[in-house]
Amino acid sequence: MKKTALFLACCIGLMFFASCKKGEPTISIATGTQYVNPNTQVFSGDQITVGFSTTGENLTKIEMNASQNGTVIYTNTLSIDNESSYLYAHSFNINAIGTVTITGIVTDAQGRTATKSFDINCYEKPNAKFIGHYEGEALITGSYDAEISNMDPMHDDFVDQPFATVVDMVSGDNINEVLATIVIEEQSNTVKGTVDGDKVTFEGINTTYNMTYQGFSVPLNMTYNIVGTLNDGKLNLEGDCQGNGDFNLYIVSGTVKIQGTIGGSLNKTR
After folding, report:
1. In a domain, 245, yes or no
2. What is the pLDDT of residue 134?
3. Residue 134 sits in the same domain as residue 34
């Protein structure tokens, strides 16, 4: 008799336990290439899509938050109408560097909840550190050659000839690309730059420069190839330049050619 009573009590307890568990909400990470998953690597500022699959009885609310070091940096809440299953998908821009924890919480009409968390890794975009305004002087060391009518050919060398230079950089179309406005001696040029580590290599710049030579103003067609390296807030320059130009003044005409290497440093002001 005692064994029968004990058996019935166990059965009733199991039935009660099962009835309590029935319909409790569940939540899992949604799979698919459109969603971020555990340890996904993203860049700060990117738009990401978070997905959670949920089931239960009378689901009423889904919450999602992104946190870093215990501080919530983004949150979203969605009310749903007593659903038995729901696929939550939400896109937002993640602005962080380091490990970010994504947490999903689903709640049913009885106030029961289920929670799921996972981590993603956020990195600074390679081009982000270059964004800003730089100004100073480019220093050009080289030589020029001139052939002037009724005169012997001329050659001269120069060292650290300063050229006022301003560089403004913003994000390009790709994560390792910048778009730069480079002003050299008041001539403005818009070019792309490719970032590799602490270096940015700019497209060749084609511009003009009015050179005064032997009292003559000679417009030179100049080409600059410039690489900038970041170091302690400065953009250190290297590269080369070459140019040529013709002039014809009264009875005097000639050709001037210039070539040199580029150095110098620009300060980041903002």
Report:
1. yes
2. 96
3. no
Residue 197 placed within a domain: yes
Looking at the fold, whether 103 and 177 belong to one and the same domain comes out as no
What is the tens place of the pLDDT at every residue in 19-54? Answer: 445 679 999 999 999 999 998 989 998 999 999 999
Q: What is the pLDDT of residues 116-137, one digit of tens each?
A: 999 999 998 889 899 999 999 9
Task: Give residue 66's domain range.
Answer: 23-123
pLDDT tens per residue, range 166-216: 999 999 888 899 999 999 888 899 999 999 999 999 999 998 887 776 666
Distance CA 143, CA 213 (A): 13
- Cβ atoms of 134 and 266 within 8 Å: the answer is yes
Same domain, 187 and 114: no
